[in-house]
Structures are given as C-alpha cells and as structure tokens.
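hey m, so remember when u said the tokens were messed up on ur end? i reran from scratch. heres the input so u can diff it against urs
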Amino acid sequence: MDTIDDRRAIIQPLNKFWYQNKVAALGMLRLDLLHPVISGNKWYKLRLNMKHAAEGGFKTIVTFGGGFSNHLVATAYAAKMFGIRSVGIVRGRYDTLTETLVQCKAAGMDLIFVTKEEYQRKEDNNWIMSMAAHFDELFIIPEGGANEWGRAGAGLINRFVKDDYSHIVVSVGTGTTLIGLRNKLNTEQHLMGFVPMKQGAYLKPYIADHLQGGCDTNWQLIDDWHFGGFGKWNKELVDFMNEFYNTNHIPLDIVYTSKMMYGLQRMMEDNMFSSCDKVLCIHTGGLQGNGAVKGELVY
C-alpha cells in the first residue's frame, strides 16, 4: 500500500545566477515535497520495507538511529500509516529528548536507549531480539533502511531522472540511496555521492559489494565538505543555506543537502564541470533536522 503521491515531487531549475553558467543546466529533484516528515529518500527506503512487513503479518518494526535521526522519525510516521507498531533503538542516553525523539514518540514509537558501545551490536539479531523481546513479531529494518528492500526502494527514484542528465548528485549516509540509484540509472550518467562525515570514503567497499553486475562504474564519493563531521556545522554553512534559499527558494537541511550543495558550488567554481554538463541534484528531505538552527534560518 503506497500512501504518498509521487506526483508531489518536482524538478525545480536553480537560478542561473547561483551557478554562474558553469554548467548547461542545474536542477533539483524536490523529494522534500513528498511529505512533511517521511520526505525525500526516506520514503523510498521505507516503502518496500513497510509493504513487506505488512504483507508478512509482522506486528512490530524495530529500527535504529541517533537522537537526531531523520530515519527514526520517518519510520515512526510510516509505521503509523501502515498500522504497525514501531520501536526505535536509540544511540546514547538523553536527559531531555531531542525534538526528533519527541516527534518519534508523538507518532507512537517506543524508544529504547542504549550506550554507544551497546549500539555497535545493532547488526546482531540475537541482541536485537533480546532488547525488544516484549514486542510481538518483529521485523528489523537496519539503520538508514540499509537492506535489500531499502536499496530496491531507493532505486525507484530513477523514474524521475531523464537520460539527458550527465551528472546526478545525492547525499550519502549509509550508501543505500546511492546503491539503489546506481543499480537503476543509465551507467553513462555520472553519480556523485556527497558524504557529510569525516573520511566518508570508508563506504566505498560496502557500496561496491552491493552493486549489480556492470553497475560498479561511473560513481564517486566526495567527503571534502563535512564541516567537522556528521551533524556538525558552523556559521558559514548556515549563511550558505540562507543565501541558497534567498536565491533559489529551496530550503536545505543542516545535515545533508546543505553540505552537498555547498560542495557542489565549490566544485563548479573550480571548473570541475564542463559547460555542456546537465546536473540534477536530489533533495533527500530531512528538513525537520533543522530544529537546532531554526532561529538562524530565514525559512
């Protein structure tokens, strides 16, 4: 059962002033418009997982994330839509719940808090079962939706991407969306993954292992613009987000898309693209993550 209308997503051309005609065309696929919470790639990574869980008669979804996880809150809302109970195993202890965790609870998600050391066992099914033993008929969705249903669902984003785009640009967290796209897109299209954490290139072997035959080509990971690490930012990045919004009327999120677009602009300024290239950037949503800088943004 699909409950979010794909037609809400549009491809919005960016203001030519912003990219100074460094490329022939630059647009953004506005997946953030799909839903106020289950937006962007989160919906695509969850939709087939939820369908599988519902059809399989599972009663409880168990998944993972930190206190600011877009995936956690999206899963909470999606599970509620599908009539399935949800449990979030949260990395770290919180005396005061973050805005994200408050939203998770509001959507009916039960939260289990574990230490960072315990969280490292998130791929140990026996440990997971022991943590959520008092819930019925568990279906486990890995962090970020990183399983076969998540990758297949992310591949559905390709329906928006025409073959005349030379470059596709996307943010990377677990690598799930990039894998799904690379497995479905025309391999002549160059796929650029911007990773918002230090030394994000560590994901390369994992991504390569999950690419289908003939698809391990024409893609790259870029981790130069992490602003200090995952979830880190500074005034320069916030100022960039405001400037981007004033020029293009598109809100970015502080964790993923802001760093992606900042890095893309720097690469264009360094003439790393051809003037005949056509570039499509994918907005992966997650705007609820802007709570920490809400007072500093113009939107």
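this time it looks ok to me. Residues 23 and 273 are 7 Å apart (CA to CA). if urs says something different then somethings off w ur setup not the seq
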